[in-house]
Specification:
11 strands, two-stranded antiparallel sheet, seven-stranded parallel beta sheet, binds NADP nicotinamide-adenine-dinucleotide phosphate, alpha/beta, TIM Barrel
Length: 302
């Protein structure tokens, strides 16, 4: 199961974004291909380019990035590694989030119309695209423009042909409902994994309307005082399938819902191949429930 096999990519079907972009259910999150604390250039440029080429070679059809990763360096690395892009590769990027410097905690959201328009135009330039397949508003928390106005700006950019499909990141279920009264939302993304269920209500809302939900940090496993409890459930399942606990965490995501589009991130080609192979692990209902029940208080995002 930990072998370098791409046969698993479509083993549990595909996910369709916006009715016309069909991708395998395991994507790739490119954020780690930046400098320390997601700031600056990835130090091993040749290694980063080789990894991105392997991502495509392994059959992955969905890459998640953002203008703020680096900032900018992540989109540029993807361009340098993969342009001209394969026809069936979907690159999702995001805008509306800014860094105040290399301190990871120094960040903010900006959502005014002119800034978001600049974000889209400059991502297009860096990625050398005429249109971005999936463009996410990175966070709904900007204080310089109402959330609805930010969605309207993306709708305007879509009408102008610069965005194919609109996505929203780190929002609540209520915000998804509000946005859908303005324009079609094609996908959402939020923090959700075996130990963190921040996106749980959003997942339910996305399931109801049938749009992809892309969990970020999808294979992360708690390393705090709860680690032993998670390991006690995940490790025996991993042993049974000859898999790693990260593979079981990803397989669980795929079994949780047919709309899941996890985007595991790695700087390691062997790990990337393992993440792809996780799609071929077929868990029992009891195993899925045991992992789901590791977190009982999923809270409310309303
Ligand atoms: N929308 C948002 O606000 C938001 C926020 C955060 C992230 N994201 C997106 O979500 C993506 C995923 O998050 P992430 O990049 O932090 O990655 P992740 O999926 O949370 O995992 C990253 C860590 O797990 C390790 N890892 C990955 N695969 C593994 C495997 N098979 N076995 C063992 N270890 C493994 C990596 O180390 P190695 O490098 O050594 O493999 C790395 O330390 C990001 O790239 C980004 O695109 C979005």
């Amino acid at each position: 199961m930990t072998s370098n096999s791409n046969r698993g990519v479509h083993a549990l079907g595909t996910v369709t974004i916006g009715g016309d972009l069909v991708v395998g259910r395991i994507g790739f999150g490119a954020m780690q291909l930046t400098g320390p604390k997601v700031w600056g250039e990835y130090p091993d440029r040749d290694g980063g380019i080789a990894l991105l080429k392997e991502v495509v070679e392994a059959g992955i059809k969905f890459i998640d990035t953002a203008d703020v990763y680096g900032p900018h360096t992540n989109e540029i690395l993807i361009h340098d590694a993969l342009h001209p892009y394969p026809d069936d590769l979907v690159i999702a990027t995001k805008g509306g989030f800014v860094r105040g410097g290399p301190d990871y905690k120094d960040w903010d959201a900006v959502g005014n119309r002119v800034y978001l328009r600049q974000c889209v135009y400059t991502s297009l330039r860096r990625l050398d695209l005429d249109r971005i397949d999936l463009y996410y508003l990175h966070a709904p928390t900007a204080s310089d423009a109402p959330f609805e106005q930010q969605v309207e700006t993306l709708a305007e950019l879509q009408q102008e042909g610069l965005i194919r499909h609109i996505g929203l990141s780190n929002l609540t279920a209520a915000q998804l409902r509000a946005a859908q009264t303005i324009v079609d939302i094609a996908a959402v993304t939020a923090h959700y994994n075996v130990g963190v269920r921040i996106g749980a209500e959003l997942l339910d809302a996305a399931e109801r309307v049938g749009i992809p939900f892309s969990p970020w940090h999808p294979a992360a496993i708690p390393r705090d005082h709860t680690a032993a409890r998670f390991k006690s459930v995940l490790q025996p399942i991993a042993n049974k399938y000859g898999a790693t606990v990260q593979q079981i965490a990803l397989a669980w995501q795929l079994h949780r819902s047919h709309i899941m589009l996890p985007i595991p991130g790695t700087t390691n080609i062997a790990h990337m191949a393992e993440n792809v192979a996780a799609a071929s692990v077929s868990l029992t209902l009891t195993e899925v429930e045991a992992i789901t029940n590791l977190v009982t208080d999923v809270g409310s995002d309303k």
